[in-house]
Design brief:
The complex is a heterodimer. By secondary structure, chain A is of the alpha/beta class. Chain A is built from 16 helices and 17 strands. The two termini of chain A are about 35 Å apart. The longest helix of chain B is centred in the middle third of the chain and has 27 residues.
C-alpha cells in the first residue's frame, strides 16, 4: 500500500483509501469516515503545557456535548443516525507534533473533521490539510489566508471581538481617558495588540505608552506591572495574555495599588484571581467570555443548545475548570452537526459547503461568513459578541455588541494597526 | 557473528523499520532521527567538559538560515541545509569569544543568555525572521527519483530515508572526530586541562573547535526539521526543548557515543508512543518526570551502563581462559 502511494504520488483519493485500509487492518470499528454507527471527530489541541488551558477544557466540553447529542439520537445523516466520538491528540502547541497528530487522526483514526486551537500549530498542519482536503477549524482566525480553503473559524474571531469591550467601556465609563497595554510577544499577543490599539483609537482613549511586549518565558511580572502603571493610566489592558500571565499580572496590579479599570480578552478561572486579590479589586473587570449560567444566554438570539444545563454539567464534572474555550469547541460542533445533517453526509467537502450556505448559526446569534479584507478569505463567522464584567465576584454579560457594525465604522483603523504589526494576511511570512 | 554482518542486519532493520509502523509513528520516527543528530552533536560539546543551554537555539540558527536561504535567495534545499550548518558553526565561533571567557556553571548561564539574545533577535526583527510567528511556507525538499525508489518528501518514510542518510553520515563524522587525536585532545581539555595546557595544547582553541563542530551539526538537524514541517518560530527553540536534550543526555549517559542516542530513542518512544497508546496522554509530563527521577536514582551512569554491563559480560565470556604460566 505504502509503495503504491509512493509510486503514484499522494492524492486526496489515495489518502482516503489508505485511511480506510489502515482502519480495517487495525480491526477498528470505524473503517471509513462514518462507518458502523459512529462518526469520529478529531480534537487536535494542547492538552498539556503552558497553553493547555485553551485545549483541555474544550475537550471536556466536547465530551459533554457528545453525550448529550448521542443521548438525543445522535447525528442524522442521509443513511441513518450516527453517534459521535471524539479522538484527541495532545499537540503540546508544537507544530511538529500537530502535524503528527493530524496524520494520526486522518490516516489512522478516520476522523471526519478536526478542531484545533490553531496559532503556532496550524502551519505545521497546513500541508496535511492541503493534501487530504480534511476540514479543520481554528479558534484563531489569524491562521486564515486565501490558501487555507479547508480551514474555518466558526466560533470566535479572535482578536477582532475585543473591540466590543473597549467600545462598551467608552460608552459606559466616559471618564476613562487613558490606557496602557501589555502582551506576550507571540502570534497570539500581537494581532490582539493591533486590535486593542484600533479600538482605543476609535473610542478616543489615549495610549500613554507603546504596548509593553514581554517574552512568553517571563515569570516575574513585578517589573512589567511597575513600568505599566508608572504613568498612572485610567485603564490597564491585558490584551490576550494566557491565563498563566493574566493571574500574576492581576496579582501584581493589586499588590502595587492599582485601582483603575482593567480590561482583558480572557479572565479564565477568575474565581482564583479574586481569591488572590479581592472582590473589590476585581469588581468591574471587563473581558469577553461569559459563564454559561448567565441569564442573558437564554434569549432567542442564542443558538447554543441549553447553555445553562451545559454549564451545570461542566461544573459538576470539572469544578473550577470553566474557561474561555469550555463551550467554544462544543459550539463549533453544533455548527458542524447542523451542516452535516443538512448535507446528509459527514464528508468534509459536503459539510463545508452546507456550513457556508447563507447565514451561520453562531453561538451568540446568526452571523455572516466574513474576512476577505483581513484574512483574504471569507472563512470566519462574525456577528455579535458579549461584553462581560465581574460584578460581586461573578461574571455577568453586560451587553451584546456587533463586530461587523464596529468594523463598518472603524475598519480602516484596524487595518492600519494590523499593518503596523505585520499581521495582515499578506504580511504574514 | 562477524561485526559487518551485525552492521548489515542493523541497516536492513533501519530500512525496514518505517514499514512496520503506523503513519503517525513514521512521523515520530522522522523527528526522532533528527533529534538523534541533535543530541549526538551536543555530546561532542560535553567532551570538553562544557554543558551549554544554547544548543537548541543554535539548532534554530541552522533552521532559520536554511529556511531564509531557500525563501529569499532560492538556494537549492540540500545546499541550504549544508549552509545552515556552516552558518550555525560560524555563529558559534562568534559566540565563543565572550562565552569561553567563562567555565563550568558560568558558561552554562552565559550560553543560556546568548541563546535568549538570539531568540529575541528573531522576535524583534520581523523582517526577515518573521517575528514571534516565525517563518512558514518553508520550501520542502524537492521530490526526486533514484530509479528503484521515488522520494516524495511529504511522506514521512521518504523523509526518514533522506534524513537517515544525512544523520548517518554526520554521526560517522562525529565518531571519527571523537576517535581522532582531536577527539582525544577534547577529552584531555575536560579531564586534564592544566596538564594539556602545560603540554602546549591551546585549551580555548579546542573548546571553540568543539563548540563550532557541535553547533554545525546541530544546525544541520535544525535545517532538516525546518524543511520537513515547513514552519519555524522562536518558541520552537526555547528552553523546553533544551531541557529535553539535557534529559536525553543525562538519562542515556554521556560516557559513550551511543549513550545520549539511547536516551533520546528510549525516552521518545516512551513519551510519544507508549504513553499515548496507553491512553495516558495528559499524564505524560508527570510520568516522564517520574521515569527521569527513577533513572537518575537507580541508573546514575545512564542507560549506557546497562549496555556496558551486558557487552563486558559477553566480552569476558568470549575471552580465552587465563592459565597460570607454566
Amino acid at each position: 500500500m505504502i509503495s503504491k502511494i509512493v509510486k503514484s504520488g499522494l492524492t486526496r483519493r489515495t489518502f482516503l483509501k489508505s485511511t480506510a485500509v489502515t482502519a480495517m487492518s487495525a480491526g477498528l470499528p470505524a473503517a471509513s469516515l462514518a462507518a458502523g454507527n459512529t462518526i469520529r471527530i478529531g480534537f487536535l489541541a494542547p492538552l498539556t503545557g503552558a497553553v493547555a488551558a485553551w485545549g483541555k477544557p474544550g475537550l471536556d466540553g466536547c465530551q459533554i456535548w457528545a453525550e448529550r447529542v448521542n443521548a438525543a439520537g445522535g447525528i442524522k445523516l442521509g443513511d441513518g443516525s450516527y453517534d459521535v466520538e471524539f479522538v484527541s491528540y495532545d499537540n503540546e502547541y508544537d507544530p511538529a507534533k500537530a502535524r503528527t497528530g493530524a496524520t494520526k487522526l486522518i490516516r489512522e483514526d478516520g476522523v471526519s473533521f478536526i478542531m484545533m486551537l490553531g496559532g503556532d500549530t496550524w502551519p505545521g498542519v497546513q500541508p496535511v490539510a492541503d493534501k487530504t482536503g480534511m476540514l479543520f477549524s481554528t479558534l484563531l482566525p489569524s491562521d486564515l489566508s486565501p490558501d487555507t480553503n479547508t480551514l474555518i473559524a466558526p466560533a470566535e474571531v479572535h482578536p477582532i471581538y475585543n473591540v466590543t469591550g473597549v467600545e462598551w467601556l467608552a460608552e459606559n465609563k466616559p471618564e476613562l481617558k487613558t490606557a496602557v497595554m501589555c502582551a506576550q510577544d507571540d502570534a497570539l499577543g500581537l494581532p490582539s495588540v493591533a486590535t486593542y490599539l484600533a479600538a482605543f483609537e476609535a473610542a478616543g482613549i489615549e495610549m500613554l505608552d507603546a504596548p509593553l511586549l514581554f517574552d512568553p518565558a517571563t515569570t516575574d511580572f513585578a517589573p512589567v506591572v511597575t513600568r505599566l502603571i508608572s504613568k498612572s493610566p485610567d485603564i490597564v489592558c491585558l490584551d490576550t495574555c494566557y491565563s498563566d500571565y493574566v493571574h500574576p499580572i492581576a496579582e501584581q496590579l493589586f499588590q502595587q495599588g492599582f485601582t483603575g479599570q482593567i480590561i482583558s480578552c480572557t479572565a479564565d478561572f477568575y474565581d482564583q484571581m479574586i481569591a488572590k486579590t479581592s472582590e473589590e479589586f476585581m469588581e468591574g473587570f471587563v473581558f469577553q467570555f461569559p459563564d454559561f449560567d448567565d441569564p442573558a444566554l437564554n434569549g432567542d438570539n442564542i443558538n447554543f443548545t441549553d447553555p445553562n444545563g451545559f454549564y451545570e454539567a461542566f461544573n459538576t464534572r470539572h469544578p473550577g475548570q470553566w474557561g474561555a474555550v469550555s463551550w467554544e469547541y462544543a459550539s463549533i460542533m453544533d455548527l458542524w452537526k447542523a451542516a452535516a445533517e443538512k448535507a446528509g453526509s459527514a464528508s468534509p467537502d459536503a459539510v463545508a459547503a452546507a456550513m457556508k450556505e447563507g447565514k451561520g448559526k453562531h453561538a451568540f446569534g446568526d452571523a455572516d461568513w466574513w474576512g476577505t479584507e483581513l484574512f483574504g478569505i471569507d472563512n470566519a463567522l462574525v456577528g455579535d459578541w458579549p461584553v462581560v464584567a465581574i460584578e460581586s465576584g461573578k461574571a455577568r454579560i453586560k451587553d451584546f455588541r456587533s463586530i461587523p457594525d464596529w468594523y463598518a465604522k472603524h475598519g480602516d483603523l484596524l487595518i492600519k494597526h494590523m499593518q503596523a504589526y505585520d499581521q495582515m494576511w499578506n504580511q504574514r511570512s | 557473528m562477524p561485526k559487518f554482518l551485525i552492521w548489515i542486519a542493523a541497516l536492513a532493520a533501519l530500512i525496514a523499520l518505517p514499514h512496520g509502523l503506523s503513519f503517525s509513528q513514521q512521523e515520530i520516527l522522522v523527528f526522532l532521527t533528527i533529534n538523534v543528530l541533535l543530541v549526538a552533536s551536543y555530546r561532542l560539546l560535553t567532551l570538553t567538559g562544557e554543558w551549554s543551554l544554547g544548543h537548541v537555539v543554535i539548532m534554530g540558527v541552522g533552521a532559520y538560515s536554511s529556511a531564509l536561504l531557500t525563501k529569499k535567495l532560492g538556494v537549492y534545499v540540500p545546499i541550504s541545509m549544508l549552509l545552515g550548518g556552516v552558518i550555525a558553526a560560524l555563529i558559534a565561533v562568534l559566540l565563543s569569544f565572550p562565552l569561553f571567557r567563562m567555565k563550568g556553571f558560568y558558561f552554562l548561564i552565559g550560553s543560556f543568555a546568548a541563546g535568549e539574545i538570539i531568540r529575541l533577535l528573531w522576535k524583534r526583527f520581523r523582517d526577515p525572521f518573521g517575528g514571534a510567528k516565525g517563518i512558514k511556507g518553508i520550501d520542502p525538499m524537492p521530490d526526486f527519483s533514484v530509479g528503484f525508489y521515488q522520494f516524495d518528501f511529504f511522506e514521512p518514510t521518504s523523509y526518514y530515508y533522506f534524513a537517515g542518510i544525512i544523520v548517518a553520515v554526520c554521526l560517522w563524522i562525529l565518531w571519527r572526530i571523537e576517535k581522532s587525536p582531536v577527539g582525544l585532545t577534547f577529552h584531555a581539555v575536560h579531564w586534564q586541562d592544566k596538564l594539556a595546557q602545560a603540554s602546549g595544547v591551546n585549551v580555548r582553541a579546542y573548546r571553540t573547535l568543539a563548540f563550532a563542530i557541535a553547533s554545525g551539526f546541530a544546525g544541520i538537524s535544525g535545517a532538516l526539521l525546518a524543511h520537513y514541517i515547513g514552519t519555524i518560530n522562536p518558541n520552537a527553540f526555547d528552553i523546553d526543548l533544551m531541557v529535553y536534550v539535557l534529559t536525553w543526555a543525562i538519562v542515556g549517559g554521556t560516557a559513550t557515543f551511543y549513550g545520549p542516542i539511547l536516551g533520546c530513542v528510549v525516552l521518545t518512544v516512551i513519551n510519544e508512543i507508549v504513553l499515548r497508546e496507553l491512553g495516558l496522554e495528559q499524564m505524560r509530563p508527570l510520568i516522564y518526570g517520574a521515569i527521569m527521577i527513577l533513572s537518575i536514582l537507580f541508573l546514575p551512569n545512564g542507560l549506557e551502563s546497562i549496555v556496558q554491563k551486558f557487552t563486558k559480560r559477553r566480552a569476558a565470556e568470549g575471552a580465552p581462559e587465563r592459565r597460570p604460566a607454566e
